[in-house]
Amino acid sequence: MSMVPTLLSVEGLTKSYGGVHAVRGVSFELRAGEILALIGPNGAGKSTCFDMLNGQNIPDSGRIRVLGAETTGKKPRVIWRMGVGRTFQIAATFPTMTVRENVQVALVSHGGQLFNLWASTARHARDEAGRLLDLVGMGAYAERPCGELAYGDVKRLELAIALANQPKLLLMDEPTAGMAPRERVELMRLTARIAREQSIGVLFTEHDMDVVFEHADRILVLNRGSLIAEGSPEEVRGNAQVRAIYLGEGLVYDARHREGASA
Ligand SMILES: Nc1ncnc2c1ncn2[C@@H]1O[C@H](COP(=O)(O)OP(=O)(O)OP(=O)(O)O)[C@@H](O)[C@H]1O
């Protein structure tokens, strides 16, 4: 029996908009150090699910617990303080501040203080910011204005900012959107390494099936608001219902492509 603690527990999560059942009775668990992908065709309910987990949307019914503590319906900031970090599809950084200052702001804000560059807390956060930047391979860029960074580097900085909150669970909404294929692989490898080393659970949504099948330990498949499959990449790839849903959307092609590539 696994001794790895359950980090996130979701039970019967449900949300409707008028007559649209966006999310219907979704239940799943996520363990510490696990990389879990949430996939599904357009309109499947991924964003609605995600937004209920981070507090931006309130479920009609169901329960969400993080390390046993109920987060259902709590405000985003409260959930963030409970150890749920997130990265955004559109990078959220301060372009005129340096890379290091962006991480310092996050560190000081995690400590519940207002950011003031000259205060002693900010000075203490300076070294810690350097450590986090080294961790994501951005140490050499520390003193550059954030607005000068290439897009892939902004995404690595975002990861450092999310880690400043010492998250137990990291929610990543299409983390590799807008990135070149090589950068996608690098960002996900980096995320997976840090998550495993620090026992952080990661839940991510993603349209790029190569990223999903290469990096997820487990995959959840949503369709029309319901969870229709859950399992390892191999199990999900072999699932007839999933193949039918994704026919023409890349998954079937991707599986053949990979089988061909590994032959
Ligand atoms: N604020 C809203 N008001 C009304 N309907 C909504 C709202 N938000 C989402 N929906 C509907 O709920 C369903 C699920 O949408 P959601 O955005 O969660 O799907 P998704 O899987 O994230 O899609 P995509 O991959 O296109 O981002 C869709 O039918 C959508 O039109």
From TrEMBL:
<dbReference type="GO" id="GO:0016887">
    <property type="term" value="F:ATP hydrolysis activity"/>
</dbReference>
<dbReference type="Pfam" id="PF12399">
    <property type="entry name" value="BCA_ABC_TP_C"/>
</dbReference>
<keyword id="KW-0067">ATP-binding</keyword>
<dbReference type="GO" id="GO:0042941">
    <property type="term" value="P:D-alanine transmembrane transport"/>
</dbReference>
<feature type="domain" description="ABC transporter">
    <location>
        <begin position="8"/>
        <end position="249"/>
    </location>
</feature>
<dbReference type="Pfam" id="PF00005">
    <property type="entry name" value="ABC_tran"/>
</dbReference>
<dbReference type="InterPro" id="IPR003439">
    <property type="entry name" value="ABC_transporter-like_ATP-bd"/>
</dbReference>
<protein>
    <submittedName>
        <fullName>Branched-chain amino acid transport system ATP-binding protein</fullName>
    </submittedName>
</protein>
<dbReference type="GO" id="GO:1903805">
    <property type="term" value="P:L-valine import across plasma membrane"/>
</dbReference>
<dbReference type="GO" id="GO:0005886">
    <property type="term" value="C:plasma membrane"/>
</dbReference>
<dbReference type="GO" id="GO:1903806">
    <property type="term" value="P:L-isoleucine import across plasma membrane"/>
</dbReference>
<dbReference type="InterPro" id="IPR003593">
    <property type="entry name" value="AAA+_ATPase"/>
</dbReference>
<dbReference type="InterPro" id="IPR051120">
    <property type="entry name" value="ABC_AA/LPS_Transport"/>
</dbReference>
<dbReference type="GO" id="GO:0005304">
    <property type="term" value="F:L-valine transmembrane transporter activity"/>
</dbReference>
<dbReference type="GO" id="GO:0015808">
    <property type="term" value="P:L-alanine transport"/>
</dbReference>
<keyword id="KW-0547">Nucleotide-binding</keyword>
<dbReference type="GO" id="GO:0015192">
    <property type="term" value="F:L-phenylalanine transmembrane transporter activity"/>
</dbReference>
<dbReference type="InterPro" id="IPR032823">
    <property type="entry name" value="BCA_ABC_TP_C"/>
</dbReference>
<dbReference type="GO" id="GO:0005524">
    <property type="term" value="F:ATP binding"/>
</dbReference>
<keyword id="KW-0813">Transport</keyword>
<dbReference type="InterPro" id="IPR027417">
    <property type="entry name" value="P-loop_NTPase"/>
</dbReference>
<comment type="function">
    <text>Involved in beta-(1--&gt;2)glucan export. Transmembrane domains (TMD) form a pore in the inner membrane and the ATP-binding domain (NBD) is responsible for energy generation.</text>
</comment>
<dbReference type="GO" id="GO:0015188">
    <property type="term" value="F:L-isoleucine transmembrane transporter activity"/>
</dbReference>
